[in-house]
């Protein structure tokens, strides 16, 4: 007997029993709503749940229920590349929480990809060619000399200087420099 048939057999038996008892009780036409209610009630009982568990525990059936990987891959690719799929992902990635979650889950893979690319001679050569491109240099220089960038740089420097962590680090560096200067002066005096 095929696994799909063994899966459907208990359900067909339930429908058959429910249908027969309904016809005998009413003596005629089978009412859909009453049959549906009866089947749902049967499935909610402990015996109904146990029957479903037994059917689902069948290894052969479970293997057939697992989706074929090529079908899943094709479906995902077609969905992602369709116009609706592209629009969906654009809207989804506008949600900052979603974007952050995706970024965190892919961080290790992204870092590994970058490391691999940096070790790839072909990639490095192309990157250097791009950076040496005179047109790119001009654009970069224009951006770096622009007022907007300078204002942004001022803001970043101000925020960095005002940061308590940075201030602590500066104090530590100044103390070390003062100690080094004092020890040098002591050496010179001796």
From TrEMBL:
<feature type="domain" description="Spore germination GerD central core">
    <location>
        <begin position="65"/>
        <end position="178"/>
    </location>
</feature>
<keyword id="KW-0449">Lipoprotein</keyword>
<keyword id="KW-0732">Signal</keyword>
<feature type="signal peptide">
    <location>
        <begin position="1"/>
        <end position="25"/>
    </location>
</feature>
<dbReference type="Pfam" id="PF17898">
    <property type="entry name" value="GerD"/>
</dbReference>
<dbReference type="InterPro" id="IPR041262">
    <property type="entry name" value="GerD_central"/>
</dbReference>
<protein>
    <submittedName>
        <fullName>Spore germination lipoprotein GerD</fullName>
    </submittedName>
</protein>
């Amino acid at each position: 007997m095929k696994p799909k048939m063994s899966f459907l057999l208990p359900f067909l038996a339930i429908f058959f029993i429910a249908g027969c008892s309904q016809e005998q009780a009413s003596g005629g036409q089978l009412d859909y709503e009453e049959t549906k209610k009866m089947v749902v009630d049967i499935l909610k009982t402990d015996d109904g749940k146990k029957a479903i568990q037994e059917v689902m525990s069948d290894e052969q059936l479970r293997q057939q229920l697992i989706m074929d990987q090529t079908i899943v891959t094709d479906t995902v690719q077609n969905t992602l590349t369709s116009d609706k799929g592209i629009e969906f992902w654009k809207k989804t990635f506008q949600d900052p929480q979603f974007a952050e979650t995706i970024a965190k889950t892919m961080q290790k893979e992204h870092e590994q990809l970058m490391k691999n690319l940096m070790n790839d001679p072909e990639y490095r050569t192309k990157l250097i060619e791009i950076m040496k491109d005179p047109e790119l240099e001009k654009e970069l220089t224009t951006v770096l000399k622009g007022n907007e960038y300078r204002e942004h740089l001022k803001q970043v420097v101000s925020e960095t200087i005002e940061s308590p962590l940075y201030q602590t680090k500066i104090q530590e560096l100044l103390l070390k420099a003062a100690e080094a200067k004092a020890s040098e002066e002591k050496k010179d005096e001796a």
